[in-house]
Write a structure and sequence with these properties.
Layout (H helix, E strand, L loop, with lengths): L5 H33 L20 H26 L11 H37 L1
Length: 133
């Protein structure tokens, strides 16, 4: 039933894995170059060390809002299908081949729309937090 979403999910996981692998190697080189540039000058004095606690990452907020949006999209898609397609919850449907394409379209559209709304909410939250800082 949800076969339409498996290909994008697999491609997204593979792309994210390759991206994070390259990012790991690039960040490692940058950290090593930074340590070499700092030298012994900053190693003896702990007060001169850069503050790393002031940086925030909004990746969990983005992922959380995306998943909430996708969940709401599935729920709204289910509600739309049950209210608009006669006999959707019944096991005995005569024209299920016709309805299958409509159901896939409704679920896909709702997931994408509400997932996008979730990411927009995360972006607006991040902007508001940035203005307060």
């Amino acid at each position: 039933m949800m076969d339409f979403i498996m290909i994008p999910i697999v491609m997204a996981i593979i792309t994210l894995g390759v991206y994070k692998l390259f990012e790991l190697f690039v960040c490692k080189k940058e950290r090593l170059m930074l340590i070499e540039r700092m030298g012994d000058k900053y190693m003896s004095d702990a007060a001169c060390m850069p503050k790393l606690m002031g940086t925030f990452s909004f990746s969990t907020l983005k992922i959380g809002c995306l998943l909430i949006g996708m969940g709401l999209g599935l729920l709204v898609g289910f509600i739309i299908c049950t209210s608009s397609i006669p006999g959707y919850l019944d096991k005995e449907v005569n024209n299920w081949r016709f309805y299958r394409d409509i159901v896939a379209l409704i679920y896909g559209a709702c997931v994408l729309v509400f997932g996008g709304i979730g990411l927009i909410v995360a972006f607006i939250t991040e902007l508001r937090f940035g203005k307060k800082q």
